[in-house]
Amino acid sequence: MIVRYTVTDKLPLPARTAINVIQAALKVRRGEAESLIHDGTVRCAGRVVSQSHHRFKIGDEVEIDYAPQPIATGKKTKLKGRFEVLHDDEHIVVVNKPAGLLTVPTPKREGNTLQSQVRKWLERCGTGRHAICVHRLDRGVSGVLVFAKSHETAELIREQFAARKPQRKYIAIVQGKLTQQTGTFKSYLCTDASLNRYSQDDPNLGELAITHYEAKEVWKTTTLVQVQLETGRRNQIRVHFAEAGHPIVGDPRYRPEQAAHPMWPLERIALHAESLGIVHPHTRESMQFQLPWPQEFRDFRRREQLR
Question: Could you tell me the residue range of the domain that residue 31 belongs to?
């Protein structure tokens, strides 16, 4: 979500640096504020603010692309494996994110994230030092993810996402049998005090979220659906299917009791970003990345078909 903050004289001149303004706007720790600035999520007057010591003026309108995550409770999701590099050049790196790994750091969470692992890999390989997040996948979700190696490149890719140009397809296993084989969910997503997302019909109350789906296979108790995102809001797919009465199998947050399945004893969500199509921000080449089903999906399918 976009957080907007107006700089006022309540912040004395020495405290009007970017890092202090971010902390004041979001009530986050200094380390997270630095990460948000480094990742190019802070803007003023349409320009990315990339330096922590950047000094704002009274009246400046600051925009922060901030996706807070709920604090996990209970048993933690186990790390299922390391990421796989799908593409690496001087401007971008595209990876297959494993389920169970945070994309970027969040408050009060461990420092082992996909972003930190990709940065270390780039440094070891000598192909870059920065991995700037331009879109995210939830912790329990696997699939294709792209990182930029510079703020300029990140800005160009974000412009594509803002214009809804990337082709993003997911596969998901949802509870029950859908009444319609194809359909579209459209709502405005809001965030409650516990950072859970929910839909509203009023465009003034939330962020527009559009999800297209097609049922691919119907099994004994569940349905395999292919999902295409028109917008990419936090938890969008999970919320839309849960509110339709078909939560994603294994989802611990949205209708968790209904989402539980005896043949899915895994600490991940049955949601996988199977493909991503983008235009290379510098060469203008059309790029398409496609992944196979995770092994967990294939195993579940076999068990469902045998019932």
Answer: 2-65
